[in-house]
Amino acid sequence: MCLIARYLEERGIPTLVMGTALDIVEFGAPPRAVFMDFPLGHGGGPAFNPEQQLAIAREAFGAFESISEPGGIVKMAQAWPDGDAWKEAAEDQSADDVRSPRDMTPRYQLEADRQMAVAAGVAGAGVAGAGD
Predict the structure, then answer these.
(1) What is the layout of strands, in order, in the sheet containing 17-19?
(2) Is 36 exposed, middle or buried (0-12, 13-18, 19+ CB in 10 A)?
(3) 3-state class (DSSP) for residue 24
(4) Helix, strand, coil % (nearest 5) of the chain?
(5) Pairing of strands 72-75, 17-19
(6) Contacts of 2 (CB under 8 A, 6+ apart)
(7) For the purposes of burial, counting CB atoms within 10 Å of the CB of 41, is it exposed (0-12), middle (13-18) or buried (19 or more)?
């Protein structure tokens, strides 16, 4: 998403990336972004909660006025309705979630993807983890 945002901005179309993974948004370096400390996949807000979804949209659009420097990220004031219990569930290693923990190690779907990243000089592209 961040690459698409930069592409559109270069062509004069203002963009705003809405993210729920701050490390990913920071690494992607979009022209402007907002961050919500929500579970992954819930950038528009909780399902079936149109009031909060509208509040999120309104607050997010305000970032167009408040971000004055390229690469600015606004941390939104929105709170997940059930508090931070979702964080404990997401970190529970005994749960059914078998994804790898987040880190800065690049992972590639195909070996050819890793090779292209190495050829392009992407930092850390040649480290273990390729193909994960």
Answers:
(1) 17-19, 32-35, 72-75
(2) buried
(3) helix
(4) 35, 10, 55
(5) unpaired
(6) 17, 25, 28, 29, 30, 33
(7) exposed
Q: What φ, ψ does residue 75 adopt, rounded to 5°?
A: -90, 110
> How far apart are alpha carbons 25 and 106 in whole angstroms?
15
DSSP 41: T
Which residue's structure tokens are 């705003």? 16
| Stretch 12-21: mean pLDDT | 95
Tokens found for residue 67: 């971000």
The C-alpha atoms of residue 45 and residue 51 are separated, in whole angstroms, by 9
Residue 113 φ then ψ, to 5°: -65, -45
Q: What is the pLDDT of residues 102-127, one digit of tens each?
A: 677 778 888 998 898 888 887 667 65
Distances in Å between the Cα of 89 and the Cα atoms of 40, 83, 85, 131 are 12, 12, 7, 27
Q: Provide the whole-model pTM.
A: 0.70
Q: Which residues pair with 18 in a beta bridge?
A: 34
pLDDT band of 97, cuts 50, 70, 90 = low
Find where tokens 């729920």 sit: 20
